[in-house]
Amino acid sequence: MKKALLMLFLGLALVSCEDREPEPILIPEWLKPRLTELESSGECYGCQVQRWSYNEEYFYHLYCGYWSCSDCEVYHYDGRRVEWGATADPVDFNENKHRPVLVWECGDEL
């Protein structure tokens, strides 16, 4: 019995530890023109895009360090701009967003 349990445990450990390729991080096509605009203006220093998970959807947060507001440009996964209070609650979003992934920084290849 102990041998069977040990074999089952080892089998489960091997399956759970298999190599998995990470999900590729891609810049959405609808966001590329905005990033190109920032880069061509020469004012993209300190700018970045992070992808967050919230309510089982991806949200893209574009922020430049010199901007006066931190959540000016947040987009739904499909490119619609978030309208705080209408399409998303800002307090709930900030409390429950998770899994940040850096998608782009100024100077990265588009």
Summary, kept brief:
Helices cover about 30% and strands about 25% of the residues. It contains 3 helices and 4 strands, in the order H-H-E-E-E-H-E.
Order of helices and strands: HHEEEHE
Helix percentage range: 25-40%
Strand content: 25-35%
Shape field: elongated
Number of DSSP-assigned strands: 4
What can you tell me about this protein's structure?
- By secondary structure, this protein is α+β, with helices and mostly antiparallel strands.
- It has one domain.
- Helix content is 29%, strand content 25%.
- The chain contains 3 helices and 4 strands.
- Strands 3-2-1-4 form a 4-stranded antiparallel β-sheet, with no helix packed on it.
- The longest helix is centred in the first third of the chain and has 15 residues.
- The chain is elongated and about 70 Å long.
- The model has no long low-confidence stretch (mean pLDDT 85).
